[in-house]
Design a protein that fits this description.
About 35% of the residues lie in helices and about 20% in strands. It is α/β, with parallel strands linked by helices. The chain has an eight-stranded antiparallel beta sheet, with helices on one face. A seven-stranded antiparallel beta sheet has the order 5-6-7-8-12-13-14, with helices on one face. Strands 19-18-20-21-22 form a five-stranded parallel beta sheet, with helices on both faces. α20 links the parallel β26 and β27. It is globular and about 75 Å long. The protein starts with a strand and ends in an 18-residue tail after the last helix.
């Protein structure tokens, strides 16, 4: 969730950078740092582990210079420390970078660069993934490329979603900024003989309301008087800034029409923030600092029960699947409102996991009370709100760090809850000896690719809009899935109900023949979640049965699956994913379909009728 600031102009950069970081500190407070260049290219770098006040206290004398970049960090690769704080420099010291995002292939890149560093008698200065970026840029510069070309080449080598700001000692009056994917926004602010860069608008608004939002694939060269953008195709242009409304709601929504759409697009970043620091690869560990339960307690767990309501219940259903498949112990899920009025069989060897985005859902709190008062089983809560009632009731909490979610329909908190459940499954499996350290590392490496899966799924927004136009008048939908995709089919149907006011039902595909098939005809569209996997053949058999009843089929499947695309009426491609990670590739598509249906119908998407963000009444 890291925050980025930048300044180039005629004022002292240091105080402006620190002020900007104050406004962005909510994006990370493991460490912070600034780098300032003067007009001769002299460089000053100051960074410190801890909150921003620790950096401010450590700066005895503010450096001179009117160009600089700053960063506030939430750790992913490498523990919080002075060494791992941003900014990071190339081994030559000429290229300085700050980044928000994850370099998924940093190990491969480090191994490639290691031989050259050894030959030059240099070494890595941090444990982060970010450090490979300035090193790649430096190598391209040494080959004779301009800085813009070197930055473009380096970004082309990265896998993942990245937002980057960089300075070069050879160009002391310029900042470069780049965005790849949805690791976070980059906003450029226009001043009078000065320019500003930030992750979010609030850091810019004390200085300017004239801004340009960097688009995916764009690289900006920013001088005090002008901005030049290099697009994905290499073409260059001068962007036209827009004036932003000072209304707080408009500021928070940014360039998006609705908060729900903004929050769908924020999911790669939100997922990265949930994972950050909790999926450590060297040595492999899951939730190393978050789960305040002894390893001995986790090792003695014989069963896991996951409870929730609504979208959180669907996350719980997927979590049950992961706990069984990854941790290798019995697991179940339950609707919290029903659970609290039953007499289920629990005991001290059952771990109860409550999923609640607000931490205040009345039925989930009631179920947690039921567990505490009757059985005393250990409890974990997964929530987005630290300090909520659920965190006070549970033995330990996993805060998913997704940031405020304004749209009533949960989007980014859903994927954050999924990531927390996946990490919990890994932690339990490792504690019980069913998941070796090597297998744990592999599971965590796969999870680190999930933000990219989300990003590529979001890329199907235009296709979802086309299909919504075709079916905007439909009154009913059937959503089918098998295995781990079945709960996601239920979530897709729920989203259609919540914001599109469409009657939709999510079903296990094998259950369709036991009743729902009687509803199908030419006016009853069916959405089939059909990525390639162990149950793909069974899913295509169900699709054949649907087509035989002449119901139109909209299939969501793997990119390049010509067989599936030929079989159905409409096809939406998502990135292929490991079988246990398909929820991350499919989620944005089902959300966007519901959003576009609601948009087609002219509905109030952020505040759907009869619904509230937090259900605090029975």
């Amino acid at each position: 969730m890291c925050g980025i600031v930048g300044y180039v102009g005629h004022q002292a950069a240091g105080p402006i950078l620190l002020e900007g970081l104050q406004r962005l500190e909510y994006r990370g407070y493991d460490s912070s740092g600034i780098a300032v260049l003067d007009h001769d290219g002299a460089l000053s770098v100051m960074k410190r582990e801890g909150k921003l006040r620790d950096l401010q206290a450590a700066i005895e004398r503010m450096p001179g210079g009117a160009t600089g970049i700053g960063h506030t960090r939430w750790a992913t690769h490498g523990q919080p420390s002075d060494r791992n704080a941003h900014p990071h420099a190339s081994s030559s010291g000429d290229v300085i970078v700050v980044q928000n995002g994850i370099v998924e292939n940093y190990r491969e890149l480090k191994a490639e660069l290691q031989e050259r560093l050894d030959a030059e008698g240099r070494s890595w200065q941090s444990d982060t993934d970010t450090e490979v970026i300035p090193e790649l840029i430096s190598r391209e510069l040494a080959a004779g490329k301009s800085f813009g070309d070197a930055l473009a080449s380096a970004i082309g080598r990265l896998r993942g979603a990245n937002a980057i700001a960089a300075v070069h000692r050879g160009s002391p009056n310029r900042i470069y900024a780049a965005r790849k994917g949805s690791a976070g926004g980059i906003v450029i602010g226009y001043g009078d003989g000065e320019m500003f860069v930030a992750s979010d608008l609030p850091a810019l608004l004390p200085h300017t309301t004239s801004v340009y939002h960097l688009e995916d694939g764009e690289i900006a060269a920013i001088d005090p008087e002008s901005v030049t953008i290099r697009g994905q195709g290499g073409t260059q242009f001068q962007p036209e800034p827009t004036q932003v409304d000072l209304d707080p709601v408009a500021i928070a929504r940014g360039p998006f029409r609705h908060f729900m759409l903004k929050e769908i697009h924020e999911q790669p970043r939100a997922l990265s923030d949930t994972i950050r620091g909790r999926a450590r690869l060297e040595p492999a560990s899951a939730l190393p600092d978050d789960l305040d339960l002894p390893t001995e307690t986790l090792a003695s767990i014989e069963r896991v029960l996951v409870i929730g309501m609504g979208t959180s219940l669907h996350a719980a259903m997927i979590g049950r699947w992961w706990i069984e498949q990854i941790a290798g112990i019995p697991a179940d899920f339950d609707n919290a409102s029903e659970f609290r009025f039953r007499a289920p069989l629990l005991g001290p060897s059952t771990l109860v996991v409550a999923v609640t985005q607000s931490g205040e859902t009345i039925d989930t709190l009631g179920a947690m009370n039921h567990v505490r008062d009757r059985w005393g089983a250990p409890q974990v809560v997964i929530t987005n709100v630290d300090g909520s009632e659920a965190t006070r009731q549970a033995d330990t909490s996993i805060i998913i760090r997704c940031g405020p979610e304004v749209g009533v329909a949960s989007t980014k908190t859903f994927v954050g809850s999924l990531a927390a459940l996946y990490l919990l499954a890994c932690r339990i499996g490792h504690a019980q000896g069913r998941l070796s350290t090597e297998a744990l590392s592999k599971r965590l490496e796969q999870l680190l690719t999930a933000p990219s899966l989300l990003e590529r799924g979001i890329g199907q927004a235009a296709r979802c809009a086309q299909i919504a136009q075709l079916f905007g008048a439909a009154s009913n939908f059937l959503v089918l899935g098998r295995g781990i995709e079945y709960p996601l089919a239920m979530e897709a149907a729920l989203k259609c109900k919540e914001i599109s006011y469409v009657h939709a039902e999510g079903y296990a595909a094998g259950e369709m023949k036991h009743g729902p098939i009687a509803l199908l005809d030419q006016g009853f569209p069916v959405i089939a979640l059909a990525p390639r996997g162990p149950l793909f053949d069974k899913m295509t058999s169900t699709i054949q049965q649907v087509r035989a009843r002449r119901a139109p089929v909209i299939a969501v499947g793997d990119e390049g699956d010509a067989e599936l695309a030929e079989l159905v009426d409409h096809f939406i491609a998502v990135p292929p994913a490991p079988p246990l990670l398909t929820p991350f590739s499919l989620t944005p598509v089902v959300q966007l379909l519901a959003y576009q249906l609601a948009l087609t119908r002219g509905l109030d998407i952020d505040q759907p009728r009869n619904l509230a963000k937090t259900v605090t009444v029975e």
